[in-house]
Amino acid sequence: MLLKSVTKTRWTITADRITIRPYGRLYIDSIMIALVGIGVFIWLYHFSDFAKTDHGKAPLLVAFGILFFLIVTLGYANTLIEFDHQSGIMRKKLWGFATVSKIPFSELQEISKVGAKDIYGESYAYRIFKKDNRFGPGFVISRNYRKKENSNAIAFTKEVVPAIHNSLRQHHKTLYDVAPPVMLSYYYFVYENGSYLLKSKKIGIVILGAFFILLGTSFFTVIPQSPIAAIIVGTLFFFFGFFCITAVFTKVIFSKAAQTIERTGMIGYLNKHYHFEDFIGIETVRIYTNFIYTRTAVNLRFNKPGKPGQADILTIASLRTSKQLEQFVHEFYQITGLNNDEIKQNIQSFH
């Protein structure tokens, strides 16, 4: 129970400031580093030939190295995010005292729930963003949660989030920038037959699909030493190429006149049809490969008709930079006309 309480997002709310400690999980990492370090030190000192040669200082060097990483990890675990009501400043303090970021409330926008996907599966955390970088990494203000109904996350949204929003509004009337200018041309959408279609890089996808289909077919024509493995690998390559080709003929259609969003393609069961009235908002999910950020998926969330409380998700883009995401979202809201105050609030909540 003690370890569980330490790894939770912890916070303190007073009359003049809100203090959040979101990195408690690193205390567990510190314990693991210490145990590994002790084990390596004992092995080097008692069982390794290093201690009996000219490299006899190896155990001592390892001990100092482990101690250094332990101090850094423990220090970062104590990092805090501070919202100072009186000065109207948000500060990030490394090790609990060294200020590394200092941002006025007027430059911040509403707290967002950000999804993430890595080798361990899907998770989410709460972050706060600057208005000029709404889809960047932002500032983490909570730990990562795996469960949707995590009690610590629920308490955080009920106690901390409203308190921060109230403080931000006291220093700045709006949490959003002024509306961007009307666009006359689009980078991610094309107008066709009264509707807008999502652009796709067809030539590159066709070449990629054809390459993998030919590669997969080649495995069936050779006489390998392991025919079963050749069939399996060839089939995987073939179907990957096939799905690349089908993606070329998949269209995402946005009809403002019919108030609908459709995805149509060669494979019928993958087709989708949604009405504007069921639209909840945009959800972005940051994708990590080997703990390194690679891209952000842009999802549209819709209410399921006849199923209260349930939502359906349509992935429509995969982009990398904050500027690309900002441009895409701006274009989406302009071509659909969904950018009213209610929908704008939803996008901030689900970002």
Automatic annotation (TrEMBL):
Record has Transmembrane as a keyword: yes
Keywords per UniProt: Membrane, Transmembrane, Transmembrane helix
Domain of life: Bacteria
Annotated TM spans: 26-46, 58-81, 203-223, 229-254
Protein name: Uncharacterized protein
Source organism: Pedobacter petrophilus
